[in-house]
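Incident log, entry 3
Record: Dihydrofolate reductase (208 residues)
Problem: checksum mismatch between cached and fresh output.
Input:
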Amino acid sequence: MTGRILIDLFMTLDGVAQGPGGTDEDPSGGFEFSGWQAGYPSSGMGETVSQGMQRLDALLLGRRTYDIFASYWPHHTEGPSGEIGRLFDRVPKYVASRNPDVALSWQNSHHVGDDLAAEIAELRAQHDEVHVIGSIDFVHSLLADGLFDELNLWVYPILLGRGKKVFDDGAMPSVLRLLESSVVDDSGVMLLRYGRTDRVPEVGTFED
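Fresh output:
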């Protein structure tokens, strides 16, 4: 059975996915709202996120997200609240970088990026579920080349205007398939799960 590549993103209603987790996560480009997710607590999405990680057996990350994870998760592995930390610490981490000599200090970390399409094919053969978390610049490359199977979007009822968007002008035109009914918590955060298809958008004209 071929493994799957899942993209997991927290985004605002207007599509911004830059720097959700902390004020110093990604202020690049003069972005003023790094940490917007942490400033808007969600009442029910924590359990939903944990459930979505149950079959994860590898991480595929951009370099910036990898550095953030490597500085945080190995130190948060104790007790019941450390379940995700233990998982991330244990599974292989694949880091997309154009620099083949990039230093990867976190255990079980590996460089990818020389031939992304071929390397992702190898990851599909080796793993059941490879999750891409955050890594918005890297996600743009995956969306442009159609190198994903599932897109999971946690959408927050926030408008930011500026910031790196999930969908830039480089995304491959495609029709996605809604995999299940949306999940909404009482703070208005919505989970949307889409599967990739081989269909492309069709055009036509409405007639009287």
